[in-house]
Amino acid sequence: xxxxxxxxxxxxxxxxxxxxxxxxxxxxxxxxxxxxxxxxxxxxxxxxxxxxxxxxxxxxxxxxxxxxxxxxxxxxxxxxxxxxxxxxxxxxxxxxxxxxxxxxxxxxxxxxxxxxxxxxxxxxxxxxxxxxxxxxxxxxxxxxxxxxxxxxxxxxxxxxxxxxxxxxxxxxxxxxxxxxxxxxxxxxxxxxxxxxxxxxxxxxxxxxxxxxxxxxxxxxxxxxxxxxxxxxxxxxxxxxxxxxxxxxxxxxxxxxxxxxxxxxxxxxxxxxxxxxxxxxxxxxxxxxxxxxxxxxxxxxxxxxxxxxxxxxxxxxxxxxxxxxxxxxxxxxxxxxxxxxxxxxx
Length: 345
Hints:
Layout: E1 27-32, E2 37-42, E3 55-59, E4 61-63, E5 67-72, E6 78-88, E7 93-99, E8 109-112, E9 117-124, E10 129-135, H1 140-147, H2 162-167, E11 175-178, H3 190-198, E12 202-208, E13 231-235, H4 237-248, E14 253-256, H5 257-265, E15 277-281, E16 296-300, H6 307-316, H7 318-331, E17 341-344
Parallel strand pairs: 1-17, 3-12, 3-14, 4-11, 14-16
Antiparallel strand pairs: 1-2, 5-6, 5-8, 6-7, 7-10, 8-9, 9-10, 12-13, 13-15, 16-17
């Protein structure tokens, strides 16, 4: 398939700028691959589709306050520093994106929090990318949790608020390291998860630290030439055991989100089981693709031409999916990170 196959027009008013409250009251479109039928539900209805012995795979990554604003030495020019990835914890070295990039050169220092925290630019990586070394006292993540802002996606055209610190985070977020939320998981409440567990469903946590590459445009028409950004992931041994038991018992593995899906599909044994792992994955899933672990997928409505849309298309079937996207627009579903959800059976 080609990049142009994944274009679709979306009215701007359907891009959700705020989440619904409570978070499990969003709409849920349920698609059945076998019958190519669709139902309109509420997200709380998702529990009806899970049965005893099934597994719910969730991504426990936690978003940190990655957007910092500081002042350049001497000129006091306002500079945004978006934290991407910690390269060396001992030396406090990070990959970042800076804006405006034309004002930030190697050797420049940028000061934050009235000078209590600063960084020095030590290398250029891309047109807006820089490598910096931070100088700080104390726990770096505690500092940025206090002074940083929630890294809302670029298509949410508003400033982040204190409410976003909670709402742009899953209720099970535990492992700090993402600069974007695994948004399919934002719909779950603790009460809904408890209801699902009471049915005899096991929850299997994994980690994939979602990077800014999740929003990066695909720039080649030939999808085989696209290169995904690498993202760190972990599949604990206990979670692998839970998933494999469900596979052996012919129960369904429900995966929450494209990030968790990429994690489990990146660590598959020759006999179709998942293996414990930790490391980096640049796995790009697009049609056609054979999913080895994922039986059911919970996801949001995704950006045109995005790798997330391509993964969902590979799972449910391209023509069927795009027909339902067209219907979702007609029915007023809310799109993207704070939008409504899909359950793909």
